[in-house]
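User: Teach me something about this protein's shape.
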Amino acid sequence: MQPYTIRDVPDDEIEVCCTRCTFRKSFKRADLLQKYSPDLYLDIFVRSTTEFCEHRQAYSIPPPCGAFTAQMETARKAVTDRNAEEEDRRRRASVERAEAALRQEERAENADIRITDKNGWRLFEAIPRGTVPKYRWQQSWEEAYPEDIIGFDGTVPIGRVFQFEPQTTNKDVWFWVLYGVESHKRARPGQGAGWERSRLLAVCRVEWCYERMLQQEEDRKRWNARAMK
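Assistant: First, the predicted structure itself:
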């Protein structure tokens, strides 16, 4: 018999039987746990229970008289399942630790990135104080954090404003990306992405670039029309 214990038995009742006679006894598991240690081996319990079986062989190493308990099999399955669950838990924990270490490493790398005080725009290109958004802005997708939004001109996306892990890095920096428009090849005014010190400034920068992009497209159309004359 394998060294399974009363603790390993998932059944409410433990039955000890003899393979050579009608000897049979049943015990409530809850009663046994009050009387014996949960770590009592089932084979020892079988030997003790069959003390007065007529086929008992004194001082035998294997269970006497061929006695057994069906709970050996259920205990084996319970232990196997528990070991499998524990192994799966350790595997998941190992994966989670590896992912957490990777995230921590990425945060450390991001924290080492130093952003200069100048974002590349000249003084006359600065967003005027008091400027407010003109277009519709909403979260990039339903589950997104408030730190990730996208702007629309009607149904056409014009750009995105977001932060990188605002809880840990770049707390005072909002990044923006200017979108082109499907089926059009519009030249972007200068840079097509950058950063600002607030979400409002980043939103207004996207709109500013978008409107300049539209204006440049109209200017090109007019110049082309004049050139055709």
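Now, about its shape. The two ends are 102 Å apart (CA to CA). The CA atoms of residues 107 and 167 lie 10 Å apart. If you'd like, I can walk through any region in more detail.
User: That's plenty for now, thanks!
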